[in-house]
Amino acid sequence: NGITEQEKVKAWNMVMIGTDFEGYINPVDPFPTLIEFSELRSQLLNKIMVEAAQPNRPECLGSFDAAFTPEIAVDKFCYKNAEDFLIKHYPNSAS
Description:
Order of helices and strands: HHH
Low-confidence stretches: none
Strand content: under 5%
Structural class: mainly alpha
Number of helices: 3
Largest sheet: none
Helix content: 40-55%
Shape: globular
Number of strands: 0
């Protein structure tokens, strides 16, 4: 594949959960609003931890260590990457 461990970790900075704003009006049934994101986070974290512990885990789950944990990856996906995007592209909107 030729992808370094550092590049695999950087990939987690590029994904995030979407909301209505991108045009997908029919949300995933168990998580229709931000109120359910904590449950989504919990279920995602559990699934990633289970899969990362498998001997035949997907490559994208093999880069976790003390500095980059499944919790950090899931928080990026659910919250942090969207926040970082907004701060970067709309810096004057933050109050």
